[in-house]
Amino acid sequence: MTAFFSYAVDERVKLVKPDITMASEMYQLICSNQAHLGSFLPIPERVQSVADEVTFILDTMKKEGAGTNRQFFIALDEQLVGAIDIHQIRIPQKSGEVGYWLAAAFTNQGIVTKSLSVLCQLAFEEWDFNKLELIAAVTNKASNQVAQKCDFQLIGRLPDEIFHQDVLKDANLWCLTKADYHKLHVL
């Protein structure tokens, strides 16, 4: 993987800007994690080929150009292991929704928690966001723990919020504002 633009998370982990040259590696990662990802996300259904991943990358680049998305892949020791983004960016409100996923072999190592911490720092200190939201299925314990560890506040439960595998599922709505972030992270 050759990243043209990245942010260091720690000495081994980076947030890298997607590039179509990464499509094959990302597609293979998705293929080898279908069951893991498919339990909460529609990614395996949407990405059925390298061409689908190229389309996804090009689409996120267009959305980034329009100011409605900030997409990154997560790399560990120069190997792609997941993705993280701010999507559905509402420009007037300076807010957006955070999403992330990680390959099964790399879970429980703090990679997503550290990556989300860096993404929040960028959002609030570099990109002038006012608020980040995170929606996680109530049953997705790992995702809810990441939100909590990154100081997001649980706003409440959204009934029938996520439609996945032909079922409506309840979700937790988490929020982190710039003011709360600065109270906790800026000396």
Low-confidence stretches: none
Mean pLDDT: 89
User: What sort of overall outline do the alpha carbons produce when their principal axes are compared?
Assistant: globular
The tally of helices reads 7
CATH topology: Aminopeptidase
The CATH class is identified as Alpha Beta
CATH-level-2 architecture: 3-Layer(aba) Sandwich
Distance between the termini: 36 Å
Please identify which CATH superfamily we are dealing with: Gcn5-related N-acetyltransferase (GNAT)
Quickly count the domains.
Answer: 1
Sheet-strand content, in percent, reads 25-35%
Question: Can you walk me through this structure?
Answer:
The protein is an alpha+beta fold. The relative contact order is 0.13. Helices cover 36% and strands 34% of the residues. The protein contains 7 helices and 8 strands. The protein has one domain: Gcn5-related N-acetyltransferase (GNAT) (Aminopeptidase), CATH 3.40.630. A hairpin with a 2-residue loop joins strand 7 and strand 8. The protein has an 8-stranded mixed beta sheet, sandwiched between helices.
